[in-house]
UniProtKB/TrEMBL annotation:
It comes from Paenibacillus enshidis. It holds the Pfam family Glyoxalase. GO terms for molecular function: dioxygenase activity. Keywords: Dioxygenase, Oxidoreductase. Gene3D superfamilies: 2,3-Dihydroxybiphenyl 1,2-Dioxygenase, domain 1 (3.10.180.10). It comes from the Bacteria. InterPro entries: Extradiol_RC_dioxygenase, Glyas_Bleomycin-R_OHBP_Dase, Glyas_Fos-R_dOase_dom, VOC_core. This is Ring-cleaving dioxygenase. PROSITE patterns: VOC. The lineage of its organism: Bacteria, Bacillati, Bacillota, Bacilli, Bacillales.
């Protein structure tokens, strides 16, 4: 039982249309699945990834049209990152962000890697991270129809940052329950706060890291548009996921039990500071119900929702995702 790295992250947006435009036209990612939130079928769930939706490259969004602005704070997934092939790619992206008026900072260094912090149109915090010196979990393959040249394209999820009031509690879950290991640290961005600790799993590297920040000067986050709902970690297959279900239950950690999401199987639980974790299988994948050449173009529904298609479509604002 070993987690293989990051699987996906899921965030909130107030506009599926603007979200689609930003992540495909600006960031050049591929929409690999247009479906609905299985726990709230009145809203879209959009999945962006590499060319085939490889586990570890997935960035997903729930559309909540009336969501207020995310209020940043503690007990949160406070920052996401996206991997690019090398340092040269960051220079390309800095120029691209300037041309397209994307809010960004300068290229800087973090724990031995070059990074480029930026925000999306709703203020969600990201940074691009260079894989130039990375030797861990492999990235994906950029979509060949992307407006971004393949040599500079986004190749997967990079480290995610958790901000919590008591880092020790989250660290215990990561190490003693989930099998992560401490591999380093770097200075906090706020004077007087502890160093940010780097944890990684499996082969390690940018695609398998959690950065844990302790802050004693923040109120809890109020989740809204531009905020992150949960982070998922990779599990090999369903058999192993069921072993994780039993492990989490045996430790008396509140959890969802086994959940069939059709495109993958899942288990959800919260760590002690309240952040929602998911364990998700690498497959079956997004080509299960669509031709790989046409992923994300039509509204896809898992079999257990197909008999409600007419009602679901009637309550969704049409979203043209055909390229």
């Amino acid at each position: 039982m070993k987690l293989l790295g990051l699987h996906h992250v899921s965030a909130f947006t107030a506009s599926a249309a603007k979200n689609f435009e930003f992540y495909t036209e600006v960031l050049g990612m591929r929409l690999v699945k247009k479906t609905v939130n299985q726990d709230n079928i009145r809203v879209y769930h959009l999945f962006y990834a590499d060319e085939i939706g490889t586990a570890g490259t997935e960035l997903t969004f729930f559309e909540i049209p009336n969501a207020g602005q995310n209020r940043r704070g503690n007990n949160s997934i406070s920052s996401l990152s996206l991997r690019v092939p090398n340092d040269k790619a960051l220079t390309y992206w800095k120029n691209r962000f300037e041309e397209l008026n994307v809010k960004h900072e300068d290229i800087t260094e973090q724990a031995g890697h070059q990074i480029l912090p930026f925000e999306d149109f709703e203020g969600q915090r990201f940074y691009l991270i260079s894989d130039e010196h990375d030797q861990g979990v492999r990235g994906g393959k950029p979509w060949d129809k992307s407006p971004v040249p393949a040599e500079y394209g986004i190749i997967g999820l990079g480290p995610i940052k958790l901000t919590v009031p008591v880092a020790e509690h989250t660290g215990l879950i990561l190490e003693k329950v989930m099998g992560f290991r401490k591999v380093g640290s770097y200075p906090a961005t706020v004077t007087g706060q502890p160093d940010i600790v780097i944890y990684e799993t499996a082969e390690g590297g940018n695609g398998a890291q959690v950065h844990l920040e302790e802050r004693n000067d923040l109120d809890p986050e109020r989740l809204g548009r531009g905020g992150v709902h949960h982070v998922a970690f990779r599990v090999t297959d369903e058999e192993e996921l069921r072993q994780w279900v039993e492990r989490i239950r045996s430790l008396q950690i509140g959890n969802s039990g086994f959940v069939d999401r059709f495109y993958f199987r899942s288990l959800y639980f919260r760590e002690p500071n309240g952040i929602l974790f998911e364990l998700a299988t690498d497959g079956p994948g997004f080509a299960t119900d669509e031709d790989p050449e046409h992923l994300g173009e039509a509204l896809a529904l898992p079999p257990f929702l197909e008999n409600r298609r007419e009602d679901i479509e009637a309550h969704l604002k049409p979203l043209n995702t055909t390229k």
